[in-house]
Amino acid sequence: MRLADARKTHPARRLLAGLMACLLALAITPVLTSAPAFADVRKADTVMGQSVDSRGLSVADCPSIDAQYAIVMSDAGTVYFERDADSPTAIASITKVMTAIVALENVKDGTLVEVSENAASVGESSASLQEGDTLAFNDALKALLLSSGNDAAVAIAECIGAQISNGTAQGAQAEAVFVDSMNAKAQEMGLENTVFCNPHGLDDGEFAGNQHSCAVDVAKMIQLAMKDDTFRTIVSTAQTDISVTHADGSQGVLHLETTDEMLGNFDGACGVKTGFTDLAGYCFAGASNKDGHDLYAVALDSSSSEQRFTDVETLLQWVFDHNIEYPLVHSDQSMDAVIAGQSVTVPIVAEVAHADWTDKTVKATLKDPQQSVSIFDLNGNINQTVVYDALHGNVHVGDKVGTITFKQRNNVLVTVDMIACEEVPAPSFLESIGIWWNRLFHGTTPGQTVAYSVLVNQTPLVNQKGNG
C-alpha cells in the first residue's frame, strides 16, 4: 500500500524518471547503430618484407584497414603489404576458388553436372539448384562462383570426384575424393597453412572441423585461378543466366548475380570471391587489372560486408598510388650528338676514361635516355653502380662504353648500357710515342697515366625519408 500510495502522491517523480529513460535511450541508440569500423595501421603490419615500425613509416604512408588478416600481391608474386598473412583462419566461401581450380584441372570435355539430394540440401548460400537438375559444367561453375552456391560446390565435387576416381566413387565418396584432390593441390602449390574438409567452406555444425587457410595462401590460390580464362571470365561477370534441365525433363533458366560488389565500382576490378561465416567473419579476395597486370588483395575477418570491400579497395589503391615511374637519367649536363643518323640533344651520364690516352675521356649517355623503371616508392631509394669498359682505339658515337646497374634496397631493378655520344679517335703514331714516354717517366714518378672516369648521373631521393 505504501508503495502504491507513494506513486500516486508523486506523479512528477514518475514523469522525470520517464523523461530520463527516454533521453538515455536516445543517447545510446546512435552509438549502437552507427559504430564505425575499426580500420587502423599496426606497427607489425609489413610493407615489402619489413614492418611498418622498423621502416619508420607514418600512418599516412600505410593502408588503414579493418581486416584481421590481409595481403596485397602482384601477379608476379611481389608482396607489397601483409597483416598476419600466414596466420591460419577460416576463409568461408573463398574455399570455392580451390574447388574451381581442381575442377577445371580434372574435368572432361562435355561434362554435365547432376545435382544430388545431398547437393541440393546442403544449405546456406545457394544457387537455387534442385535435386535432379542437370547443367553444363561451365554453368555449374558460374553457380559456384557468382552466386557462391554451396549446392553447386557439392554437385561439382561429386561429379569431378567421380571422374578423378574413374567412376569407382560416387556421391559422398566422390566428394571425399575431390576434397583429397583439393588438399593435394594445396600441397603442390606450397600452401603451408591450408587444409580443406569440404568444397564449399561451411565450418560449423556438421561441417565443423580443421578447415582453414591464410591470407597469403588465398593470394596464391587466386593468382593461379586467374590464369585460367574460364575462371577469369566467370568472376569478372556481374550477372548472367544459366540453363538447367530439371528432373522431369523441363527446361529452366536461373538468373545469377555476383556477390562481388567491387565489380563496376573500382577501376580495373575483375573478380574474384567473397566469403562469410560466423567463424571466418566477412572475407573478400579481389583483383584489379591495370596496364595488363593483375594486383590481388585479400581481406579476411573484416567487421562487415561493406568493410571487406573497402579494405580490399584500400589495399589496391594504396599500391597503385605508390607505384611510380622513376626516370633512370638525372643529369644537369647535356650535349648535341648525331645518333642513328638523327641530331639529338642527349644527357651526359658519365665520362669514361680512354685507356690509350693519359688525359682524355669519352662522354656517355644511356642507350635509351628516356628509360624509366616502375618502383614502389615506400621500398626505399635508388642507388646505382657503374662498370666502365676499357676503351682502346677509335671510339665512335653509339659504341658501348660501360653499364649502369640500378638497385632498390639491394634488389636489381635493371642494368643498362652506356654508349658514347662523341667521337674520340685513338692517338696518332707520334702521340702514342709521347704517351708511352710519359707513362714510362711516370712509372718511377707519381703521376696520372690514364684519365679518371667520372659518373655524372644522380639518383634523387624517392621520398623524403631517404630510407635506402
Please summarize what this structure is.
The chain has 468 residues and is of the alpha+beta class. It is built from twelve helices and 21 strands. The protein is 31% helix and 26% strand.
Question: Could you please describe the fold and organization of this structure?
Answer:
The chain folds into 3 domains: 2-33; 46-324, Beta-lactamase; 334-455, no CATH class. It is elongated and about 105 Å long. The protein has 468 residues and is α+β, with helices and mostly antiparallel strands. Strands 2-1-4-3-11-10-9 form a 7-stranded antiparallel beta sheet, with helices on both faces. It starts with a helix and ends in a 13-residue tail after the last strand. The chain has helices at 2-9, 11-33, 52-55, 95-106, 117-120, 137-145, 150-164, 171-188, 215-225, 229-235, 305-322, 429-442, and strands at 46-47, 50-51, 69-74, 79-83, 112-114, 134-136, 239-245, 251-257, 269-277, 281-290, 293-302, 323-327, 334-339, 342-347, 350-353, 361-366, 372-376, 382-388, 400-408, 411-420, 454-455.
